[in-house]
TrEMBL record:
This is ABC transporter ATP-binding protein. GO terms for cellular component: ATP-binding cassette (ABC) transporter complex. The lineage of its organism: Archaea, Methanobacteriati, Methanobacteriota, Stenosarchaea group, Methanomicrobia. Keywords: ATP-binding, Cell membrane, Membrane, Nucleotide-binding, Translocase, Transport. The chain holds residues 3 to 232 of 401 of the full protein. Belongs to the ABC transporter superfamily. It is a peripheral membrane protein. Probably part of an ABC transporter complex. Responsible for energy coupling to the transport system. Part of an ABC transporter complex. Responsible for energy coupling to the transport system. It comes from Methanoculleus sediminis.
Amino acid sequence: TPLLEAENVAYAYQNSPPALAGVSVRIEAGSKTALVGPNGAGKSTLLLMLNGMLRPASGVIRFEGRPLAYDNRSLRDLRRRVGFVFQNPDVQIVAPTVEQDVAFGPVNLGLPPDAVRQAVRDALGYVGLRGYEKRPPHHLSGGEKKRVAIAGILAMQPEVLVFDEPTSALDPASSEEVMELLDELASGGRTVLVSTHDVELAYRWADSVILMERGGVLARGAPEEVFSDH
Ligand code: ADP
Ligand code: ADP
């Protein structure tokens, strides 16, 4: 069974045409999967569904083969295991210092103080932000903020990491750093799922590509197959 799966999922925002019209996708454990498509294709909507933040109007989402349950306790557990990094790090940064921000998730999970400290230290080391502990996150560069947001998710040790447009609004050097980070996460055994409108990036980075347009899936498979005739 795939680790995460959407089966025939549909969704429409209020007073809008369908954002997703019967989409089925499978995310294999340990894969690097890219959802690729133009703006408005439905990528963000699908990602939000895969970690329970949106509930499909019809169809089903499964994690480890089991349909999602939408009670608070199940959602909390799912979101710990399927970490979500928003496109805009500002919506994810909640605390006055980097250290407190990264600690937010593990504190919420009820980890004891020693474990929180360790999780924060490890996560900041991972994203290359040791020494930034006392800095106010809102004064950092775009690339640094992105890495703070990633560290905050990593501190909860999710098995799956979902990134909505991980490199949008970043300069080329910061984009490269973030993609290298995603590679390291994947080679450490985590499942990594990204959305992007950047075909080149998907081609270079992903081992599995899902091509979306207008709320539907156009093609899926290895990057060489999917992009051979597009
Ligand atoms: P993508 O991530 O591929 O850019 P989205 O999932 O954000 O696509 O959007 C899919 C469709 O749903 C688009 O037509 C978009 O305008 C619409 N949409 C997204 N979010 C909302 C919202 N909060 N309210 C109304 N329509 C939305
Ligand atoms: P993305 O590529 O992440 O979808 P968008 O510009 O499509 O970027 O959307 C940015 C934010 O605006 C998202 O939170 C999305 O839900 C919301 N949004 C997108 N389209 C609409 C819309 N037509 N009406 C209201 N909100 C929207």
